[in-house]
Amino acid sequence: MSNQHTLTTFNLLPVGLNISTWWNFGSMLLACLALQTMTGFFLAIHYTANINLAFSSVIHIVRDIPHGWMMQNLHAIGASMFFISVYIHIARGLYYGSYLNKEVWLSGITLLITLMAAAFFGYVLPWGQMSFWAATVITNLLTAIPYLGITLTTWLWGGFSISDPTLTRFFALHFLLPFALISLSSIHIVLLHNEGSSNPLGTNSDIDKIPFHPYHSYKDMLMFTTLITTMFIIMSFTPDLFNDPENFSKANPLTTPQHIKPEWYFLFAYGILRSIPNKLGGTFALLMSIAILITMPFTHTSYIRSSAFRPLTQLVFWTLIATFIIITWTATKPVEPPFTTIGQVTSSMYFMFFMMNPILGWSENKIMMTTP
């Protein structure tokens, strides 16, 4: 009976023996989604989607509702932890060639786009000064779309400027999108279990498998404990670590902040947007900064899956990571030299990584075939 149960576990959860801690960030994302959904529901029952009351309702939650300060901080800090885990999860997929599981990878990119939409709508809800102006700048990008731009912008705003209907729509979308995230996550996990997890060696995981529980589930519990501990440390000692000081002032359409910028996890895309003077070109580059991830399964030409055995790809990969950090940094700086030049150079390097992927594969194949 025990052998039959073990065999069933192997069949249902084929997990490679050698997968490392980098694979646990997928489970951390599920934990973040659950935490954000629970704290978000608590905040939603006290929040008022009205431009005259939204900012006051957030203050009311923090000051007057029992444990409201905790829920609000957990939700705000949890969003940043969510994106830290997402970016590490994607970087691991790029490094170890996990994108070759095409269905899993494409469902993951769909999840990323949905998550970014939910985070953007949520960032507007406190109706602080930076929330209002960041929303104004980003939604105005729709006007760059030929013929339909102004119509789409007016529809999204619910009028001819960001006002009460806009906030109501953003609140409704922010409340509904987590349910889409839960559904997409379920599909993502089912596809993952059907195809099996990748591993650092890039070999077939079916060669040597162990049950998911207890070997990997205990690692997931350790990572979840680490996540919660980190969040409570930030909440206890530096609760405003990820907040912009401008957002502690109520939105004022008559006063423009000196430097308008979105939350830190959008800064790399915002930096790419700023690097192109043309509005339509910048909007297209902004969209492509995420959409280009879709091309990875179709541009892989190397005989070897994992970058662990591909030195040229390793060099380019770590250059990409450095480029991502530099773009994020430049996006926090004024639009003036030398930051504009640095932003343009690093934005070009960001896209070059994806364009070089097939060339790197062919080059490494040739080196491998000619090496005795």
TrEMBL record:
GO terms for biological process: mitochondrial electron transport, ubiquinol to cytochrome c. Heme b b566 binds at H89, H188. Binds 2 heme groups non-covalently. Its cofactor is heme; heme b. Residues 1-201 form the Cytochrome b/b6 N-terminal region profile domain. Signal peptide: none annotated. Residues 202-371 form the Cytochrome b/b6 C-terminal region profile domain. The chain crosses the membrane at residues 12-36, 42-62, 74-92, 104-125, 132-158, 170-192, 221-238, 284-303, 315-332, 338-360. Pfam families: Cytochrom_B_C (PF00032), Cytochrome_B (PF00033). It is found in: Mitochondrion inner membrane. The keyword GTP-binding does not apply. GO terms for cellular component: mitochondrial inner membrane; respiratory chain complex III. It is a multi-pass membrane protein. A ubiquinone binds at H193. GO terms for molecular function: metal ion binding; oxidoreductase activity; quinol-cytochrome-c reductase activity. Heme b b562 binds at H75, H174. Gene3D superfamilies: Cytochrome Bc1 Complex, Chain C. InterPro entries: Cyt_b/b6_C, Cyt_b/b6_C_sf, Cyt_b/b6_N, Cytb/b6-like_sf, Cytochrome_b, Cytochrome_b_C_euk/bac, Cytochrome_b_N_euk/bac, Di-haem_cyt_TM. Keywords: Electron transport, Heme, Iron, Membrane, Metal-binding, Mitochondrion, Mitochondrion inner membrane, Respiratory chain, Transmembrane, Transmembrane helix, Transport, Ubiquinone. Component of the ubiquinol-cytochrome c reductase complex (complex III or cytochrome b-c1 complex) that is part of the mitochondrial respiratory chain. The b-c1 complex mediates electron transfer from ubiquinol to cytochrome c. Contributes to the generation of a proton gradient across the mitochondrial membrane that is then used for ATP synthesis. Belongs to the cytochrome b family. The cytochrome bc1 complex contains 3 respiratory subunits (MT-CYB, CYC1 and UQCRFS1), 2 core proteins (UQCRC1 and UQCRC2) and probably 6 low-molecular weight proteins. This is Cytochrome b. It comes from Aparallactus capensis. The lineage of its organism: Eukaryota, Metazoa, Chordata, Craniata, Vertebrata.
